[in-house]
Amino acid sequence: MTEKFKRIHVIVLDSVGIGEATDAAKYGDEGCDTLGHTAAAMNGLNVPNLTKLGLSNIRPEQPILGVPVQDKPLAYFTKMHEISAGKDSMDGHWEMMGLPVMTPLHTFPNGFPDELIQKIETFSGRKVVWNKPASGTEIIKKFGEHQMKTGDLIVYTSGDSVLQIAAHEEIIPLEELYKICEYAREITIDEPYHLGRIIARPYVGTAADNFERTANRRDLTLVPPEKTVLDLLAESGRDTLAIGKINDIFSGQGIKKGWHTVSNEDGMEHFIAVLDQDFHGLSFTNLVDFDANYGHRREPVLFGKALEVFDRQLGQALPKLTEDDLLIITADHGNDPGFRGTDHTREFVPLLVYSPAFHAGQALPVRETFADLGATIADNFGTQLPKVGTSFLSTLKMR
Ligand SMILES: O=P(O)(O)O[C@H]1O[C@H](CO)[C@@H](O)[C@H]1O
Ligand SMILES: [Mn+2]
Ligand SMILES: [Mn+2]
Questions:
Q1: 62 φ, ψ (degrees, to nearest 5)
Q2: CATH code of residue 178
Q3: Are residues 61 and 134 in the same domain?
Q4: Of 172, 205, 221, which residue is a domain's last?
Q5: Nearest CA to 14 among 198, 289, 255, 249?
Q6: Ligand 2 centre from 113 Cα, in Å?
Q7: For binding Mn(2+) 2, which residues are annotated in this chain's numbering (predicted)?
Q8: Do the annotations mark residue 344 as ligand-binding?
């Protein structure tokens, strides 16, 4: 069978949810709405490109403020529900690639057991401070100066299955931090820990009021226990290009070439550059600033401004697409900047599917799992289909 599209591009707007999921109550997240609350804080979002693709058509009963519902949206549009047990990035991205995480990973709301902390202390020759949930920017304000004096490791977690180590780059050099994180990764793969991610959180600055985290963050994720759509594509000789955090999230599995990025804007510039390359397969981009800089920080106005910047860059990318290209814009979970706490929120995610080859856009049925995305990609490239997910490829009508 011939392929409908030679290239498929997936852009994940990290944490840009589109309203509470049907199971939000199970997570204590009733009432969350990342896009809705962000747009309200901005008194309306100015995102002409997302608008014309059909962003508000996804929920015409409650349009996103400033984003009018289109009579003739350019994209196929709907929202997707998550079936994974967790609401972290790894769960969301793996599910998109056909591997939902059905057994909950472990979270440590009261901090990690002494046994684990002692192992990290022995390996690193440093003491651990905090070892409880925290916001990453608050915790370096609180312990950064202490760390500069003592060299102690700042260990913290969140509502997700993560162990994060914050370290001043001039006190604990990056290479050393990465080694400690790799060690922590090795000893937390199996029970009783079974942690989704170890995250290195380097920062710089001279005092509490000016500490800043750097782009040298590294996420050490579990290795996917089964093949994802990325593996299926790679095995069948297709290109798999990863921009931003994607390579980390899949531990490099099934990825032919990956680029780390320093910001959303940098990520989109890489994406636009990739559009000029001749390749055959998937480009997969994650834009993490929405989540790390604005969602967890509960900054709805800055979140909204970042969406507007993304939209302008999207405007540069769209004219580069040809009839051989399919663009898919989605998210991996919510992180409502107008919601209590600082954790991710259990939300539907938007799904906008666009190609210049389409005659017109239209509504797709609500997807029961993010895995429908991976199934569609596998279907297009004629590889083995993932175990989970239903392709919507045949619904997409070409001119
Ligand atoms: O508060 P910061 O350090 O940004 O951490 C956040 O980033 C992690 C990964 O998204 C989340 O689990 C949350 O802990
Ligand atoms: Mn995420
Ligand atoms: Mn996050």
A1: -145, 70
A2: 3.30.70.1250
A3: no
A4: 221
A5: 289
A6: 26
A7: 291, 296, 344
A8: yes
Instruction: Walk along the chain (399 residues) and give the pLDDT tens digit of each residue.
Output: 589 999 999 999 999 999 999 999 999 999 999 999 999 999 999 999 999 999 999 999 999 999 999 999 999 999 999 999 999 999 999 999 999 999 999 999 999 999 999 999 999 999 999 999 999 999 999 999 999 999 999 999 999 999 999 999 999 999 999 999 999 999 999 999 999 999 999 999 999 999 999 999 999 999 999 999 999 999 999 999 999 999 999 999 999 999 999 999 999 999 999 999 999 999 999 999 999 999 999 999 999 999 999 999 999 999 999 999 999 999 999 999 999 999 999 999 999 999 999 999 999 999 999 999 999 999 999 999 999 999 999 999 999
Q: Are 101 and 86 in contact (CB under 8 A)?
A: yes
The annotation status of 291 as a binding-site residue, yes or no, is yes
Token pair for residue 12?
């994940």
Choose one of 221, 256, 278: the last residue of a domain: 221
93 annotated to bind ligand: no
- b/e sequence 209-247, b meaning 16+ C-beta within 10 Å: eebebeebbbbbbbebeebbbbbbbbeeebbbbbbbbbb
- In this structure, how many other beta carbons lie within 10 angstroms of the beta carbon of residue 101? 22
User: Which residue range forms the structural domain that includes residue 307?
Assistant: 7-105+224-395
Pair 272, 360 in one domain? yes
Question: How many domains does the chain divide into?
Answer: 2
Q: Are residues 183 and 255 in the same domain?
A: no
Asked, for residue 1, whether it belongs to a domain, the answer is no
pTM for this structure? Answer: 0.96
Nearest ligand (C-alpha, residue 286): 2
Measured from the CB, is residue 33 less than 6 Å from ligand 1? Answer: no
ipTM of the complex: 0.96
